[in-house]
Amino acid sequence: MAITLTDSAARRVRSYLEKRGSGIGLRLGIKKTGCSGFAYVINYADEAGPEDIVFEDSGISVVVDPDSLKLIDGTEVDFVKEGLNEAFKFRNPKATSECGCGESFSV
Question: Exposed end of the chain (fewer CB within 10 Å): N or C?
Answer without folding.
Answer: N
